[in-house]
Amino acid sequence: MSDGLVLIVEDEDAIREMVRVTLETASFEVLDAADAGQAVRLLADHRPDIILMDWMLPGISGVDLTRRIRRDDALREIPIIMLTARGEENSKVVGLEAGVDDYVTKPFSTRELIARIKAVMRRSGAHQGEALEFAGGLTLDPARHRVRANGASLEIGPTEFRLLQFFMSHPERVYSRGQLLDQVWGRNVYIEERTVDVHIRRLRQALEPSGFDTLVQTVRGVGYRLSTQP
Ligand code: CA
């Protein structure tokens, strides 16, 4: 199972590639962008669990992009770790003021980077809500990013995790595809509604071994709900 979706924004190809390989090896999913423009385009379609933000980027700087993300209702909760170069001590202060959660100084060891990512994700998990339980056996722990069925851990992707978290926070209520897009993906006009169907299917597949997949119900002509009622 994935430990989370990481977006790295870094213009130096070698560092970006190194970080990508490191994180993928550590079982994270990775998106990468070489500049702020690419990052913004990715953020229109994806909701990463954490962003690694280089300080010095061509065009819009890392700190300006951070400020922009912090002003955006759909993105402001995403934790950000700033990547700074040695000697940019001042940038750490500015970065923290702009809303980064932590920073890592280059060159960094892969072990240090992963430890920081996990620590920041753990901390931010506290803001993502309490552990949830449904149907007497399905549990979701945002802080640990874990879903269990009758105690057994399930393999679930980051988007399916958020979808399930939303459903478990709002059980028995029907949501249209558009409402789910707004709530789970953030308001975004570029994602087609059938994307929701794809992730509903994946969510059911993730729950299938446990038998909880039947709780994710299609309500014809309306949308989807999580329900214990047939
Ligand atoms: Ca750079």
Overall description:
Helix 6 crosses helix 7 and helix 6 packs across helix 8 (194-207). The mean pLDDT is 88. The strands form three sheets. The chain has a five-stranded parallel sheet with strand order 2-1-3-4-5, with helices on both faces. The longest helix is centred in the middle third of the chain and has 16 residues, at 110-125. It folds into two domains: 5-124, Rossmann fold (3-Layer(aba) Sandwich); 132-226, Arc Repressor Mutant, subunit A, CATH 1.10.10. The chain starts with a strand and ends with a strand. It has 230 residues and is an alpha/beta fold. Strand 7 (138-141) and strand 8 (146-149) form a beta hairpin. The chain is elongated. It contains eight helices and eleven strands. Bound molecules: calcium ion.
